[in-house]
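Late entry, written up from scratch paper. The run itself happened at the end of the previous shift, but nothing got recorded in the book at the time, so transcribing now.
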Amino acid sequence: MSTAVETASSAVIVAIDGPSGTGKSSTSKAVAAKLGLSYLDTGAQYRAITWWMLNNGIDVTSPAEIATAAAKPVIISGTDPTGPTITVDGEDASGPIRTQEVTSKVSAVSAVPEVRTIITELQRSIAAGAEGGIVVEGRDIGTTVLPDADIKIFLTASPEARAARRSGEVKGSDLAATREALIKRDAADSGRKTSPLAKADDAVEVDTTELTLQQVIECVVTLVEEKRTAA
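Output as recorded:
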């Protein structure tokens, strides 16, 4: 009986926001695995809907076409941090959504209000169904998707550090071009009218520029455990 009570009281919703290349995904997955929480990569969902639209002949330069098609694909996210999955209409999309074509179009698709409404509802339902708690990573989790999250963390890093990390992930990529692409995407995500990339007022900011991934993970785990203890 006490175990059930302990499980219920330790359930915690963690929102981790920030731009690309800050170590957000690696940190979020590791923290969730370490603390026994579920994990949700919300960026993958926006990539998935973008990939579906590109595959189905939707003009992704047309907000009207995007809005009309937004409710059509069925996106299902697996929340195991050691092996997160994502399917679109039953098809594994985990590889295809990481292509450069999707990366270059995802900001435009995710800026359409109808898309954000549908994906935000999906994210909230997943978080609500995570009985043991969940780490949700994205760009507007602490501000829009889960404003009542138990703890909010905003990861930052210099454009140079972020570009170096991204270039390390993508073989043969050009460092300067990667940096420019990141800055361009930051501007698009921060400047959109609906749920822009932003730091919540009550979020803890962690600058990862000079930190190793392990140091970032330890920092976030400590913050979450302190919150759990206080609760």
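The longest strand covers residues 12-17.
(Scratch paper discarded after transcription.)
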